[in-house]
Amino acid sequence: MLKWLSFALTSLLLVLALAACGGGGGDDDDDADPTVTSVSGASTATTAPATATSTRASGGSDASASPEASPTSVPDEATPTVAGTAPSRPIATPVPTEAAPTATTEAVGVPEVEAELMAVLLQPEDFSSDWTQDTFGPMEMDTDESDELCNQPSFPDRDERIAGVEAEYSLDGDTPAFIIENIVLFPEETAVAALEYAREVSSCGEWTDDSGQTFTITPLDGVEYGDESYTASIEFEIAGTPYYGEYVFIRIGGAIATVAFITIEGADFTALQAFVPVAAERLQDAAISDGSADSELMDLLLVAEDVALVDDVNVWETGEPIGSTDEERFSVCGAMSFPDALGALDEIGHELFANGDAGPFAMHSVVQMLEGNGAAAMEWIRTELSCPSWTDDDGEYEVTESGDLAVGDDTYWLIVTIVAEDGSGDTVQLGYGFSQIGDYISVVGLAAEDSIDAELFGAMIALGAQKVFGGTP
Length: 473
Known about the structure:
This protein has helices spanning 2-13, 112-120, 188-201, 270-273, 275-286, 294-298, 304-308, 374-384, 454-471, and strands spanning 131-138, 163-171, 177-185, 206-208, 214-220, 228-238, 241-252, 255-264, 316-321, 346-354, 361-368, 389-392, 395-404, 410-420, 427-437, 440-449. With 473 residues, the protein is an alpha+beta fold. It has two domains: 2-22 and 81-286, Protein Transport Mog1p, Chain A; 294-471, Protein Transport Mog1p, Chain A, CATH 3.40.1000.70.
């Protein structure tokens, strides 16, 4: 019986389609503007390890500048916050005297963001010893949509899920009960749409699934949690025995926690309801980032005052933000950004320019990745951005120099000369420096007509890495 209840309740929670992982991608677009006023670069990062062999374009191995700044420590973790407000809850919290047996709570071999989410789930110590933990960990792939809530399809943007975890607990005996919680992390705007979709598909009133089981669903005026929440009840019968359950969707920023229970109708379910505020408060306190905490990454970017520390010749100003879409990027070796398999957790950048429109021009962007993926990102950079030359509609690009700097955990730089395709013979030189600082990639670009100042280029690479190192955990 408990197995069937588990299946029934799990079916309800799949309405948000928390099975597909990863983010949507787009086709690469090599339409780039080779003018010196656009120096954005490939700067998104990783979630899967890459096994790439490092190759280099021909050229020197040392920049003419030898910056002394060399931050080498790796930040242990990065946890931006998402704002949310959880109201006070007048329901008592269950306080068991002994944890549920055979419990697992360790997050071994999972990405940092999923480990963070797992720590937020209802834990065995939240239950008394007569409860059994049935599931605990990252959500597994599920493509079966035959038993969705109200027979409606899964949330259409489920593939934008950043991470998802779940826990299930069951109580056997004369009054069986089952509790499941899952937490899914989306970009915040997708999470808002997901909760709205949950409301919509919960409005059918009654439906019969493919097995012939009929369910009645009723929206409830429940306690409000987090940024927004939605509560509904569900009723059905098995072999003449009526069952009752409730489920609550709680959104805080880009994270959605779904807490649900089922028990025999007429049983006292006050203790089961008490798990909801526990889950809401825990999610609120954790403040899991959806990767959109731009203000924190913005503090890591070089600004005009920073560049002035290493350049007393030019007068610098901080420019506009760099777009994150491929159409707004400048390609290197024809590569617009990291592939989807190496997706970034967050990214931000902006331009800097000197002496008005006279130049030189620069950019700095910072990419935050899931834990442990910084090295994989650098592997990809060294492999994909080490071509000798490439051509697109705007001109011919030649990598004239490339090499390493003793900056951060790893730094790779290259200098590119662009010859305009319009036959004018005009040339622009671009320098790109990629530095790994733990799970962050600092990308510095410098552009000028004819040639860049190599000493300034090297100093800006070191300065960018140093600012990231000083501003991260």
